[in-house]
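Figure S7 source data.
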Amino acid sequence: MKELVENLKKEAIFFKIASAADLEKYRLQFLAKKGKLNEVFEAFKTTKLENKKEFGALINELKNELEEKYSVFTKSLINNKTENELAFDLTLPGDSRKLGTRHPLSIVQNEIISIFEKMGFIISEGPEIEDDWHNFSALNFPENHPARDMQDTFFVDRGYALRTHTSSVQVRVMENQKPPIRTISPGRVYRNEAISARANCFFHQLEGLYISKDVSFADLKLTLFKFVEEFFGSGTKVRFRPSYFPFTEPSAEMDIYLGVDSEEDLRLTKGTGWLEILGCGMVDENVLKNCSIDSQIYSGYAFGMGIERIAMLKYGIKDLRQFFENDIRLLDQFKI
Ligand code: DAH
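Tokens for the predicted 3,4-dihydroxyphenylalanine complex:
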């Protein structure tokens, strides 16, 4: 028995511990349930009664020494580790990174853009803080038009306001380019509106403009029919209603037919089956003049649509405010 204890002691003393893996080997070999120390304890059970006292003390001493070595090396391993080594436990499972999603408004906007790009329209952009000329005057808004009122427009400084529509970009493009012009201008616009499920103080529009020789209302209709067919599917019924905008003459609003079959359709279309999608018309002569384009040679059409309304329709979102809350439960549904 004595010999057994002595040998084990030697073995443990000479066991080299240089790493965490060695330490674990040491534990398994000597201290674990199936380790050598336990074997000695097992052997002790069968020793004669008169030897028990002496051997018991030896074995206890052995046990203490083996455990002491284990705890000394455990401590020294931890102390020798740099902070980085402690911080990076390579045995831990990795963190999975969640991929973001595109915002539904971006998805819809990109889809609309790609349809018009296929028809030869190129993107142009303008500033969100706009002067009176580009947002109103050049677009033929009379001096006393209600849109110029503080109640509808966020004025920033004298003569400057947050643009109320992307039609302002039309003016900038026409001032800077020679016809033929074929452009779309997506962007954010601002209005001083009470916030509700159907209105917000900012939203997104996409403006279209085509200026060339001999452009007619028929060209406008063809372009918009094509857009509706691509975006809403072939067979979607469309109608034009006469309307008024200061910057187009004649002006129209375009509706698409949703039907009256579901409660949702009835709600969206106020029982008529028809939903307004955009405003459009032939660019007013005064607007062409304001942008130094000869209206005797050139004519053109323009249209403007709200992205939120189309996205709400596409995804069945009932409250416009949801687009701006950044609620991950909504956004997560738009994985592509
Ligand atoms: N700017 C208009 C609005 O914000 C939309 C619009 C209507 C744009 C007719 C156009 C157009 O280009 O021709 O309500």
